[in-house]
Design a protein that fits this description.
It contains 14 helices and 4 strands. By secondary structure, the chain is an alpha+beta fold.
Length: about 375
Amino acid sequence: MKKKKEDLSCSRLGKVGGQAVLEGVMMRSGDRWCLAVRESGGGIAKRNGEYVSLRKKHKFCNIPIIRGVINFVEMLKLSMSMLTASAEMIGIETDEPESKFEKWVNDKFGDKIMGVVTAIGSVLGIVVSVGLFIFLPTFVTKLILGENQAAGTFQPLRSLIEGVLKIAIFVLYIFLVGLMPDIKRTFRYHGAEHKSVACYEKGVDLTPENAKPCTRFHPRCGTSFIFVMLILSIVIGIFIPFNDMPLLRTAAKILVLPITVGLGFEFIMYAGRHNNVLVKILSAPGLWMQRLTTKEPDESMLEVAIAALKGAMPDEFPPDEAEEETEDDPEKETEENPEEETGSADNSTDAENEVPSSGEENGPSGPDENDA
């Protein structure tokens, strides 16, 4: 009996993962996803759909390293889509009364303005991220090393200092946003997501009671993915020149960022399906970081996470007819692409269940579509 349970547990590794959203959880298994949120009235609202990754459509997109970059972009799109959908499902008003300026803009530019605003917002987000995590550490490191910065012997030291500064900025950011009540609640749903996945992978019945004692830390989480990328950036930074030119060094780091993302993805894929000593050592920093990004959920949160997990795996957990009628999205307008319906995590964190040939969150899966 024990052997049978171990075989069941191994067969379930890496099959499902997801992300926390507003008052709920999104789970994904294979090409299917299910979004479940707790309504103000106490019920659980669910929305189901499909999202087929480019990695399944085109062989080129599933080449190691390249698939990590593809996955990263897809998960960012899916995560934003799920966050928007969860806000709609719990009744958050996304439309506010127009100001006079907004009315003038709409009269002059019409619907095109939304595309412009979205593009500007995305560019600003990228600029802030590059400034905080790439340029600032590079500039501060130059000040620390002073006149010795150009010496080749200082290259490993330079990269180490830059990496430590990146990690410090990331940890401080997560700590500060975690003080906000709404974010803290989302972190609790993040814990519920991890616990329900751990319960499923353990091979026991999916109930809040069984999920509650399970771990809220998962090696395939988007948090671990980001931490892995930060550590990889230290190693890659050793080989980047332009020691005395922060702007050029920053540009070089941006150019090699896809390689960092791809390598991080491959490690998270591997870590999600193996539990050897090397994986435990390399995964430890990301798991420690999850003490900030996950909090203990209550049973009502676990119920939501379990509902999402079961909804994403209808073949394994067939819904009864009544539940399907009341909880599935009646319009089914997202079966092909959730982006079309509403417009991840992580990180995070992606839909392939095969064991990777090269060694695939939570994503959020590294974070793969099935990251935890």
